[in-house]
């Protein structure tokens, strides 16, 4: 037999998968372990028992799930925010690692219930600056959490800046229906009807009812036109009805009964103007009856040659007796006609609504001197960018100055669009001929409620969804990814976080970007780093920052980089990279710029420890965590476990370890060098605790001795707990005690002044199979045994090695030899500790018998 001493000097690569059992050739194999449970890897390569969890708060709300987020005003004013279903909890972090609950919010500043739902808590996205935190999700309008004093917070809806006269809101707008004409019935006022239609080129002025007379009550019109069939009329799409009444009567009132665009019952009345063809302004899918209030003559009814209804407005719920969809998500949404805003006050059908117009429907033309005359002609060319007119519309010109010999009075006033030249240019007929060909007119306003394609809708609403992602970048507040526009990014004006007005694309104006990369990229998160990093369901993108140049409307662009996609776990930065969970939840990657590739790369950092990644639901990074100079990423898994990851790129090392507790970890967050966790313990208590001390208890209370009993009722009312006694100098594990009525009896331990009371956890190291190369080659798979293990221990108490108890160690530091028995084809060393005491292993030497 031959004895070989195999050293393991470091655990710097942490826990690795048993799929690597044959990778004895890899340097990772010799500096890792098959299991590191409840251990942390120190920067020097040693492993140490992770801190216990100091109890801070027991959640007594009805719905107990929480999402945690840090809120840091400065080093002296730090907070932790818990978002739950219908409420927010705000804790202030005070001296000696204590938390105090300073605010519980269940309503916003307008008295409304909070929109937070437990089903989506881990999808929420936050960004904080100064006294303000923003909370985002596609299902509700962004919320603003404001710290109003040292101990007070309030929540409100995100409110955009607006013009002082409140007729213009500086919010994003988008075109959701590019081919529909908008048709306001007036230029100002409230209750103004607005319809959407498309050009059809179909006209039938008497297709519903041929010209007819009726002098006897009930003055019913026979539906006998080309479009009528068996007493009804059915259109392929809803159309606007026209009534031609050539009798000259102006008191004829017609009642039309049928169904609207969406098949809902519809009844309208229309008063004839006499000797004209009138447009009723109403759209019918079917018509079953038309009557007149009086005897009539020379009346025919048909459809126009231009309008077929376009379904657009949300029609949630049922059509009520007032002819409205009271639950429509479009109610309260702002439309823009040109640049003039109007708020939807009610929705009658999917193509028709009523609005309140804030200001007259007018637009100041964006170029100076937009009028062009031609010598001897009264036709004047008008340049209006994206006018959207079709021809024949009535407009009103204001503030035009004389040009080409045509005086101002012959330019201003009501004019008709004579012809369409292109999408930016049309002509009108002036009141006199020009005597010179020139450009002029000065600053011109166009007032009109003519049908136009030049309209849009606010980008964020209950019907279009709200942003999923938010961050601050280069002094702009950035939002990304709504339900309707999942691949769009909106950036505020520079330094004005509530103003998203695109203006004239000046450097400080707001920015609107679409990730037009060929696929629809559903934006989930954004991260401000050297560039604006964008994490989507399918890809990783970025908005580049140019050397010595800020992002502006004229240089902003989105570039696609890697194709992995991101789960609903907020990416976080560590060691110069951004860590994110790959779509599918089985891999963790780092997103980092590679100078050699001149692009971002997404390299998996969990390949050798893939078994520790089980559908992560939450992630946080703590710098100088666990009283070390190291940074650690904490990932909470769907199965209730936690994984810790540390990285040192300069030394080319990275390590994973697994963290377990008696219960389930649910969420985590860090504030500075403090790492908090939210968990459900084995008694189904939902508790907020902090990894804070070398105490091997989770959710522990630090309580003083008094009168033979110790009260632990703030968390434990019954069951059993583990207790560590403290006499001011030493900490000693006293064992398991029974809780009765929120108290434990400690009469026999009155020599201790204080006690740590909580639930212990087991720490365990299982080495990789001890292997070596003999004279005839590798011994991998051969029967072999470990006769002796020498452990280098620091400040450790009560250990077991391969189930053998190491005696006489209490706060021991030094080398400890342990003799073992048995042979195995994959011999391993298992070092564990059940007691809630300190435990650190710097390395070990195994004596292998081959």
How would you describe what is shown here?
It is a single chain. This protein is an all-beta fold. Among the domains are: 126 residues; 188 residues, no CATH class; 81 residues, Elongation Factor Tu (Ef-tu), domain 3; 64 residues. It is 0% helix and 51% strand. It contains no helices and 71 strands. Strand 51 and strand 52 form a beta hairpin.
Number of strands: 71
* Proportion of strand residues: over 45%
Mean pLDDT: 92
Radius of gyration: 37 Å
Provide key terms for this protein.
850 residues, single chain, mainly beta, Elongation Factor Tu (Ef-tu), domain 3, 71 strands, eight-stranded antiparallel β-sheet, 15-stranded antiparallel β-sheet, elongated
SSE layout and pairing:
Elements: E1 3-8, E2 33-37, E3 39-41, E4 47-49, E5 52-58, E6 66-74, E7 77-84, E8 87-94, E9 98-105, E10 125-129, E11 132-137, E12 140-149, E13 152-157, E14 173-174, E15 181-184, E16 189-198, E17 204-214, E18 220-221, E19 228-229, E20 232-245, E21 253-259, E22 265-271, E23 276-292, E24 296-309, E25 334-337, E26 340-349, E27 352-357, E28 362-364, E29 371-372, E30 379-383, E31 394-398, E32 413-422, E33 425-429, E34 439-440, E35 445-447, E36 455-458, E37 469-473, E38 476-480, E39 488-491, E40 511-514, E41 523-528, E42 532-536, E43 540-543, E44 559-562, E45 572-574, E46 577-581, E47 588-594, E48 599-604, E49 616-623, E50 631-637, E51 642-648, E52 653-659, E53 663-671, E54 674-681, E55 686-693, E56 697-704, E57 709-711, E58 720-726, E59 731-738, E60 743-745, E61 754-760, E62 763-767, E63 773-774, E64 777-778, E65 784-796, E66 800-801, E67 804-805, E68 812-819, E69 823-824, E70 830-833, E71 840-849
